[in-house]
Design a protein that fits this description.
Number of domains: 2
Number of strands: 11
Shape: elongated
Number of helices: 1
Radius of gyration: 22 Å
Order of helices and strands: HEEEEEEEEEEE
Oligomer: single chain
Strand content: 15-25%
CATH architecture of the largest domain: Ribbon
Largest sheet: 3 strands, antiparallel
């Protein structure tokens, strides 16, 4: 017997990714994981499963159901997708390593011979949501020498 549609967590509230397990049958499980850069209680195994466990089909569909789900909250520890920054010149990451821990910055610089009018590098902070801060203001560059 098939199960009702698989519930999906509110990604913003729980920092979990939607499952790809959508055709669940009765007594099978749907598996969820934390979004990239997040973990469950600091563990490397960030898997959460729910079972279609109601032995009594829901009338009138004849489908099994999922019990009420108590979603765990994944803790964001890092930003994993480094954003591209648009400017008059192409900027490149100074510190190319990702992921970037929450509260830390990813730094960008101009190609050789150019500088940002705001300084040698531009930094974007990794926010507690797992996203980088949105660049503010207009980045402009000038040639040196």
């Amino acid at each position: 017997m098939s199960c009702e549609p698989t519930p999906q967590p509110d990604q913003a509230s729980y920092n979990m990714a939607d499952t790809t397990d959508v055709s669940i049958r009765e007594f099978e499980t749907a598996t969820f994981s934390c979004k990239p850069g997040a973990t469950l209680n600091g563990e490397t195994d960030d898997i959460f499963s729910i079972e279609c466990d109601n032995p009594t089909p829901t009338p009138p569909t004849g489908q099994g159901t999922f019990s009420a789900v108590s979603w765990p909250t994944c803790t964001v520890e890092a930003c994993v997708g480094a954003p591209a920054i648009a400017a008059n010149a192409d900027l490149s990451a100074v510190d190319g390593a990702v992921p970037v821990p929450v509260g830390q910055h990813r730094h960008y610089k101009c190609p050789d011979g150019q500088v940002l009018t705001s300084g040698a590098t531009y930094a974007l902070e990794c926010l507690p949501t797992g996203d980088f801060a949105t660049p503010t203001g207009r980045l402009s560059t000038s040639y040196v020498g």
